[in-house]
Design a protein that fits this description.
Layout (H helix, E strand, L loop, with lengths): L18 H12 L30 H14 L3 H11 L2 H6 L2 H14 L3 E10 L2 E8 L4 E11 L2 E11 L2 H4 L8 H17 L5 E7 L2 E8 L1 E3 L4 E2 L6 E2 L5 H13 L9 H4 L6 H6 L2 H6 L10 H5 L32 H15 L3 H13 L20 E2 L25 E2 L3 E2 L2 E2 L2 E2 L5 H6 L3 E2 L15 E2 L1 H12 L6 H9 L13 H9 L31 E2 L15 E3 L2 E3 L6 E7 L2 E8 L4 E7 L5 H5 L1
Antiparallel strand pairs: 1-2, 2-3, 3-4, 5-6, 5-22, 6-17, 7-8, 9-16, 10-15, 11-14, 12-13, 18-19, 20-21, 21-22
Helix pairs in contact: 1-5, 2-3, 3-5, 8-13, 8-14, 8-17, 14-16
């Protein structure tokens, strides 16, 4: 969270990392600061304040909260701001610092802004509202309110006061046509390829129908094999969403609950504290305290010794928890390895077999698997990294150093093999030249087989099939699919003689919903339109007839007392390691799905996406 209040005219150059940022975070959100005034009063000029523009607040819960906040903030209404905090903060925050004190602290800053009027409102999603305001000196500020869904409640997660920049005040740019957009991003992609910053496959789909599907660069540098649209790439951590879907399937079937302790499900787990305290929910949300398998021991272990999900346990399972389970969040590859073992134990199936049977097969993902590194498999891209020095230690590549270089990797689009389009270079760079530039295969950093935390393989087309099946609720009920996207847990049913009070407690439990590499809540809806199962053998640059906006919104679905609004469904997932970078983004507001798979180091795919 960052907060700042600045004025060029008065030279209050206060940045987010400085005092005002800390003041607003502590005083307004956490209520731990006693410093209430550091800004000079605004200089009164003869200029008249700009008249308030006619602004319509979004017809959303966040929009309504923002409207009530603005009306009270504008009037310096202590009771109104107090009510806003009372309705927008969880009880534990209000216990730390009462709403009345928070209101006084915020309005002390409000008074120093002087007379203000609302000029513009911005909102990029259902949970954020930004207010652009001006004062008598015609200085512009933006008030940003970010909310977070927690069950049926909407809580304030972040509040900032910042100086508004030109990008905030400028009118929105005219929308590009689809051909204009494609032309623009193709130019950016081709420059990245010329600069040798990208190699891989890019797929853009509208309503799950591909509109741009192209390969670039080489799948094998030593044999000069071009990438094709049917080449399979290492997904990195994108595999974690398959694990999360599998957990939801088992919970929905009643084979486990999110409250189950690790010791109940894996009684032989070597860490007694983790067995006693860690729940399935905490493993999913990365709040368990279980750490990572990467480290010196992993680095020093021959990678051919890591051939199954359970082989990763040796690197972390016996180590102490990093923190009290549930007290905070920490990215945890280890936690997802443990989830993979839970899936195997509960389902009585090998983890890999479970995912193939219950996710890959229903979605039609025929080219996806956890391939072993030393088993020959066709159509698999070799990973290339610049993150290895002579001693084998990793060193991040500074791609920005190469932005100005000219390359010779110009793409053409007229070469095919076995019915698949291929990337072709106008002037092929010899493998020896690439070696001189620092490229190495990632064979010594990549385990022999991936895990429930990542390292599986898929084509871009298979990931699109997964996205389509997930949105179409092919893996799960609508309620549990909603959990995948939003973290909101479905109410449990009183079945099989379960204790009603226990069910009530579980129904009140809310997923931490802080795993932002899994989800990106979006404002508008998405139509479930089938992606053809027929193989698309050509490069695709097509525009669905008559579609410039996303297709019709899905209707809310009633599940007990809760209403599921599928218009909020959206997701963004990334995977990365030496010679591996993959991105999957689904935007419910526009209906677009973006898939970028690369056999180069991060941020090769991330920058393109």
């Amino acid at each position: 969270m960052s907060h700042k209040v600045t004025s060029k005219r008065l030279r209050w150059k206060i940045r987010p990392v400085l005092v005002v940022a800390q003041l607003l975070i502590l005083a307004v959100i956490n209520g731990q600061s006693t410093i209430l005034s550091i800004l000079p009063p605004p200089v009164q000029t003869e200029k008249a304040a700009l008249p308030a523009a006619k602004i319509d607040f979004p017809k959303t819960p966040a929009g309504e909260k923002a409207r009530l906040f603005w009306e009270a903030f504008l009037r310096s209404d202590t009771q109104g701001v107090k009510k806003f905090f009372e309705s927008s903060l969880p009880p534990e925050k209000l216990k730390e610092n009462p709403a009345e004190k928070r209101a006084e602290q915020l309005l002390n800053i409000r008074r120093q802004l002087g007379e203000i009027s609302l000029q513009k409102l911005l909102s990029s999603g259902p949970f954020d509202v930004t207010l652009i305001v001006t004062n008598l000196s015609q200085e512009y500020f933006k008030l940003e309110l970010d909310f977070k869904k927690s069950g049926n409640d909407l809580f304030l997660e972040k509040f900032t006061i910042d100086e508004a920049g030109p990008e905030d005040l400028a009118p929105p740019l005219p929308a590009l046509t689809l051909p204009e957009a494609i032309q623009g991003f193709e130019q950016a992609i081709e420059k990245a390829v010329r600069d040798d910053r990208f190699s891989g496959v890019i797929l853009v789909a509208k309503d799950f129908q591909p509109i741009f599907f192209k390969p670039y660069g080489l799948a094998s540098q030593e044999f000069e094999v071009p990438n094709r649209t049917d080449i399979r790439f290492n997904l990195g951590s994108i595999n974690k969403i398959f694990t999360k879907v599998a957990i939801a399937q088992l919970v929905a079937k009643g084979q486990l609950t999110l409250d189950d302790k690790l010791g109940k499900l894996l009684p032989d787990y070597p860490n007694p504290e983790a067995k006693e305290k860690v729940t399935v929910r905490q493993l999913v949300n990365m709040t368990s305290g279980i750490g990572d398998f990467f480290g010196p021991e992993f680095r020093d272990t021959p990678k051919d010794m890591i051939r199954h999900n359970r082989d990763y346990l040796r690197f972390f399972a016996s180590k102490p928890l990093a923190f009290e389970p549930g007290s905070r969040e920490m990215y945890s590859n280890g936690g997802y390895v443990v989830l993979g073992e839970i899936i195997s134990d509960v389902s009585k199936m090998d983890y890999y077999d479970y995912i193939k049977r219950n996710i890959f097969e229903p979605a039609g993902m025929k080219d996806s698997d956890w391939f072993q590194a030393d088993v020959p498999v066709k159509n698999v891209a070799e990973g290339y990294t610049r993150q290895l020095e002579e001693d084998g230690q990793g060193k991040p590549e500074k791609h920005g150093d190469k932005q100005g270089q000219k390359g010779d990797m110009t793409q053409t689009e007229d070469k095919e093999k076995d019915g698949q389009p291929q990337a072709r270079t106008a002037k092929e760079r010899p493998a020896l030249d690439r070696q001189k530039q620092g490229w190495r295969k990632n064979i010594y950093t990549r385990p022999a087989r991936g895990s429930a935390a990542g390292g599986g393989y898929a084509t871009a087309e298979d990931l699109l099939k997964f996205a389509r099946a997930l949105y179409g609720c092919k893996f799960l009920s609508e309620a549990w699919t909603n959990w995948i996207f939003t973290g909101i847990e479905p109410p449990l049913k009183n079945e099989n003689g379960k204790n009603p009070e226990r069910l009530k407690e579980q129904n009140q439990a809310i997923s931490a919903d802080s795993n932002e590499f899994y989800r990106k809540s979006l404002e508008s809806g998405q139509k479930q339109e089938a992606f053809s199962d027929s193989k698309n053998d050509k490069e695709l640059i097509t525009e669905p007839a008559g579609r410039e906006k996303s297709a019709a919104k899905s209707a809310p679905v009633e599940t007990g007392r809760n209403t599921i609004d599928r218009s909020h469904w959206g997701i963004g997932i990334a995977g990365g390691a030496p010679g591996i970078n993959a991105m999957l983004e689904i935007d419910g507001q526009t209906g677009y799905t973006i898939i970028v798979l690369s056999n180069y180091d991060p941020p090769a795919a991330r920058d393109i996406a």
